[in-house]
Design a protein that fits this description.
Strand 8 and strand 9 form a beta hairpin. By secondary structure, this protein is mainly beta. It folds into 2 domains: 31-283, Immunoglobulin-like (Sandwich); 288-367, Immunoglobulin-like. The strands form 4 sheets. Strands 1, 2, 3, 4, 5, 6, 7, 8, 9, 12, 13 and 14 form a 12-stranded mixed sheet that branches. The protein has a 4-stranded antiparallel sheet with strand order 18-17-20-21, with no helix packed on it. A 3-stranded antiparallel sheet has the order 15-16-19, with no helix packed on it. The longest helix is centred in the N-terminal third of the chain and has 11 residues, at 17-27. Helices cover 6% and strands 37% of the residues. Residues 1-29 have low confidence and may be disordered.
Length: 368
């Protein structure tokens, strides 16, 4: 009989290895926009998760090379001149936290005319599209490959299901913070998303806006609600599809710009036209030089066989495992069979040129 322990925040790193490999292979085959570019997603330490309050100070630790400015945006339809930072300037940072399937965003914008006095779509907008499992392909009803399908069947069975589009209003006044484009409006609410703004201008005025938010990307998000939803699993070095557009309206509701991070205007409905982003490891200055960490999976409960995986950080020259039953191992990734049932205290000791560390887990390894 094959069984395992409950999932910890790191256990996915053991179990998604094969899927990660397949996704990496598939990503080479997808026709992603800007094939020569991979943007970076900053990893926040688990004890410094950004607070969603409209105060960007939590983001001060993010290096400047993570900033994606308005100079990266284009209009491939040539309907508008290139963005002019003297009239509209935009800076975006994207983050993630190991163990949470969330993407965090800091959107900072300065506009010479903020438009947000209408109840519909005519609102200065930050439009985000995410395809975190790189499934690719169309994601909105009118791009459905089966043109014989009824429009509403396509909308409710297909639109936003495998990749999601958020029309985020900047700012929202008298309306919800975003349109989650599709029949699954539940994805824009807690516990799947959250947002906060900071600004002091009125409609028609100039000024600065700060928007902090996080969203949960989904491999499957149906209209029936979260009961059948499948969150996209985020892990270190994973590649995801992500892009955004900035829609600028001026006096009278005239659209003054529609600029995209993707080279393709239709990225709003085509996941294969998104841009590659990589979920980065922690920056070296945010963690100790050497740090012990490990995880495990019970691969055969009947034989009491356990596979241990070293997940330590740093330059390591030796490993020493104490399995809690009087036996030890100096392998990096040992497999151990216990003779008796029990609750075991397992300890990993590591050493390297920068020092030593240990991690003990008390009774995590339970064998019957």
């Amino acid at each position: 009989m094959l069984t395992h322990m409950p999932i910890t925040k790191n256990k996915w790193l053991l179990w998604v290895f094969l899927s990660a490999t397949l996704i990496s292979l598939k990503s080479d085959l997808l026709a992603q926009s800007r094939a020569d570019t991979t943007f970076k997603v900053f990893q926040f330490p688990a004890n410094q998760i950004p607070r969603i309050d409209g105060n960007p100070s939590d983001w001060s630790m993010v290096p400047s090379n993570y900033i994606i400015g308005i100079d990266q945006l284009v209009d491939d339809n040539n309907n508008y001149p290139s963005p002019d930072s003297s009239t509209l300037d935009v800076k975006v940072k994207v983050g993630w936290v190991e163990g949470l399937n969330r993407l965090y965003f800091l959107y900072e914008a300065e506009d010479n005319f903020w438009h947000f006095n209408e109840t519909g779509l005519k609102n200065d907008t930050y439009e985000v599209v995410v395809d975190a499992d790189l499934s690719g392909g169309p994601l909105i009803d009118r791009f459905h490959p089966n043109k014989r399908l009824d429009k509403w069947d396509a909308y409710f069975s297909f639109h936003g299901v495998h990749a999601q589009n958020y029309h985020i209003f900047t700012p929202p006044v008298g309306k919800d913070w975003t349109l989650a484009w599709g029949p699954q409006s539940w994805i824009k609410e807690l516990p799947y998303a959250n947002a906060a703004y900071s600004y002091d201008f009125k409609h028609g005025e100039s000024g600065n806006l700060i928007l902090e938010f996080w969203i949960t990307p989904f491999d499957y998000a149906g209209p029936e609600g979260p009961e059948r939803a499948v969150e996209s699993v985020l892990y270190e070095n994973k590649l995801i599809g992500l892009a955004w557009a900035v829609l600028d309206y001026d006096e009278g509701g005239k659209q003054d710009g529609f600029w995209n991070l993707s080279d393709e205007h239709t990225m709003y409905g085509q996941a294969s036209e998104l841009v590659m982003f990589q979920l980065m490891p922690l920056e070296s200055d945010l963690r100790p030089a050497i740090e012990a960490n490990w995880d495990f999976i019970v691969i055969d409960m009947d034989r009491r066989k356990v596979a241990f995986k070293d997940q330590s950080y740093g330059e390591i020259t030796s490993w020493h495992w104490d399995f809690g039953d009087g036996t030890t191992s100096d392998e990096q990734h040992p497999i151990h069979s216990y003779d008796k049932p029990g609750l075991y205290v397992v300890v990993l000791h590591i050493e390297g040129p920068d020092g030593s560390d240990r991690l003990s887990k008390v009774w995590d390894v339970a064998i019957r």
